[in-house]
Write a structure and sequence with these properties.
globular; single chain; mainly alpha
Amino acid sequence: MTLPPPQDPYGPPPQGGGGPSWGAQPQQGYGGQYAPPPQGPPPQWGQQPQWSGPPGPPPGKGGRGKWILGGLAIVVVIALAVVITVLVMRPSGGGPTPTPTNGNSDFASANDTGPVNIITDDPTCEAWFKVVGEYSNSAKDVGWANRDFSVPADAWTPEQRTMYEAVGRAMVRAADQTVNLAKTTPHRVMRELFAQFIAYAQAFEKRVPAYVAEDDNVAVEADTVATSLTGICSAIKYHSAQAVAPLVAAPAAPSTVARPEDLTEPGVFLAKPNSTCSDWSSVVAKFSDDAATWQSIDPNIPASDWTPEQKTINAAINPIMSANADELERLGRKSGNAIFEDFATLAAQYRRAFVVANPTYSSADSYLAESATQLVRTIDWACKAAG
């Protein structure tokens, strides 16, 4: 099945209930299941993708995916027989693979303390596609996409209880499998993303017995982190990251650097609301409004086929995206939270990368925009989950 490509770079603000598509308004809990690995054409600008397997080649004329399954997921449709080439690792900043300064460290990223940047290769991506694909399939098997997130545990039917418990177990299985990926990646920000997937997956599973509607925010955050990882790996898979990374200026050094933590039970990066959360939400809403005309363009159309009007609209969106990237990075540095800052800076870098790619847009470039989108949502939903 071929799915249409992502449009809305952030997606309109979530509301509550069913399963949106990439630019459709995500419902509370995104109404769907957990983010699986892409399968078919790259994600479509604002739509919600279904996943099941590693990313497949982008379609000849562009495309950007459809996000379903509870957290914004990028989709790519491919034949089951496709073999993913193991990716060569390189640190976030594009230099040689970092060697931990502490010989006893369990983390390959222990020496990655510089600015986070567009990731052009990572040895964990193939395994991540497998982990998140199995996770997604488990959620689909119990009809997770059709759940009514508003029903608390004390009002569940036996079927609902079975569904929530099954998904909780699936999340924890995926989290357990992710531990080694967090240790193996040479990139600090990938380690942080893996650790946060583990943290929010574990947190949601613990909340299942006494579940209330607000706990769905935690599930959505786990999904969104998963989808961020998939977008980053997909941009590597289809070489959109490699094509533009040298053309994007490196960001400033981080204000502080988060050290590796115990992965048996890592803490969520926003255990309580951050003072920057309200500003972050406002920036997300403003960008969605400013980008509305651009979002209306069919994302399947490559730059070579744009009409004069579409060329004008795409040219106009570039300074909006650039300004938005600057604001994301500014807020990240203002947060006083090392992981918040890393995620915000990385989102800004992928937003800038898309600006570089946009004049010659092709389908693979959609993963740059999608990575930025999901990283932005990762912070937004962490704020919601913090209360």
